[in-house]
């Protein structure tokens, strides 16, 4: 009798676990262009937050849609994806914005020294703050 309950419990847990894993794997991707920004700030502010306390900044910014404004210091294409670097007042560290496919096609209008607002998903901090799937706002 006890063995039967244990086997049934394990089967139920396996089915529930499989269902949850399937749902997470097939979760739709966030469309940054159509989504509202969770946080609006400057490149200096987000970098300062990460350099002063990375754990608090991770809690505040990770996986959120961030709208960031700053001065363009570098524009490049790697693996057919545009990357715009927003400079900060820090000696080390910038905000790297990895562009979406549609924004990569429109990046020819962007010039170094231009003040720009981009919106993307924050994935973390590795000397620079990283935003992905970025859309050019202005």
Poorly predicted regions are none
CATH level 1 class label: Mainly Beta
Q: What is the name of the CATH topology?
A: OB fold (Dihydrolipoamide Acetyltransferase, E2P)
The portion of residues forming beta strands comes to 35-45%
Average pLDDT metric: 89
SS content category: alpha/beta
**Shape category:** elongated
- How many helices? 4
Query: What's the name of the CATH homologous superfamily?
Result: Nucleic acid-binding proteins
CATH architecture: Beta Barrel
SSE sequence, one letter per element: HEHHEEEHEE
Largest sheet: 5 strands, mixed, barrel
- Number of DSSP strands? 6
Strand numbers in spatial order across the main sheet? 2-3-4-6-5
Alpha-carbon distance between the two ends: 68 Å
Percent helix: 25-40%
**Domains counted in the coordinates: how many?**
1
Task: Output the radius of gyration.
Answer: 20 Å
Q: How would you sum up this structure, described in words?
A:
With about 140 residues, the protein is an alpha/beta fold. The protein has one domain (about 30-135): Nucleic acid-binding proteins (OB fold (Dihydrolipoamide Acetyltransferase, E2P)). The chain is about 35% helix and about 35% strand. Strands 2-3-4-6-5 form a five-stranded mixed beta barrel. Helix 2 crosses helix 3 (about 55-60). The model has no long low-confidence stretch (mean pLDDT about 90).
